[in-house]
């Protein structure tokens, strides 16, 4: 009797068996190595059923799962673990799987406060993170806020980044509820900028704050008024002696012409 492969065992179902309409061009020399990397979709789907996960677009998602497993040289079970960890509302999200794979370790000079924020963002789901913030403000999570979390995840943002977006949003507005319009604006910006980690999100906030301070300083220094410079208590007359003498000479010439005209 053929035994079912255990979790993590070599994969055993070929792509053409999953989608008969697709043809695979495999040379004899490639066939042996290909068998080692085939994807055991049957066991993958068994775990999906056990954990209540679903495909949003089965054919497209399975093709991407095959590609990920092949690129990373993963077993079907290793691929499933990432799929489960990045699922959105019980749906497999290959977009978030790709974002997680693309994460790069970062080392930066973070303050103790920033390190605490990063640690909390990494250790909680957005729902848990939001619930804790709402609790401090005597509020409960609304249905529209739940939908907001789903929308941000659908952009491909990972949980730790979504948590930073939530924190930034609550710091922006003194309210018990999320400013959903502002949160989505930030989320779209982070998705576009490929912000994949809490560290990158914190650095992005730091950069924006620094730029805001510089812009404010520039705006203040460039403000012009109609008040003459000499009215400023700190004004110093920087007129050179040579310029002063030239002005005095012109003044004397003007007085002389006036006197001649008066004769």
SSE diagram, text form:
Blueprint (H helix, E strand, L loop, with lengths): L14 H4 L9 H9 L4 H11 L6 H15 L3 H10 L8 H9 L9 H12 L2 H11 L6 H12 L4 H14 L7 H13 L5 H24 L19 H22 L1
Helix pairs in contact: 3-5, 7-10, 8-10, 9-11, 10-11, 10-12
Q: Kindly name the structural category.
A: mainly alpha
Round the mean pLDDT to the nearest integer and report it.
83
Fraction in beta strands: under 5%
**What is the end-to-end distance?**
134 Å
Considering DSSP H and I runs of 4 or more, what fraction of the residues is helical?
55-70%
The helix-strand sequence is: HHHHHHHHHHHHH
Main beta-sheet strand count, sense and barrel state: none
Q: How many helix segments? A: 13
Sum up the structure in keywords.
mainly alpha, 0% strand
Structure description:
Among the domains are: 38-102; 112-217, no CATH class. The chain has 263 residues and is an all-alpha fold. Mean pLDDT is 83; it is low at 22-36. It is elongated. It is 63% helix and 0% strand. The N and C termini lie far apart (134 Å). It contains 13 helices and no strands.
Short précis:
The chain is 63% helix and 0% strand.
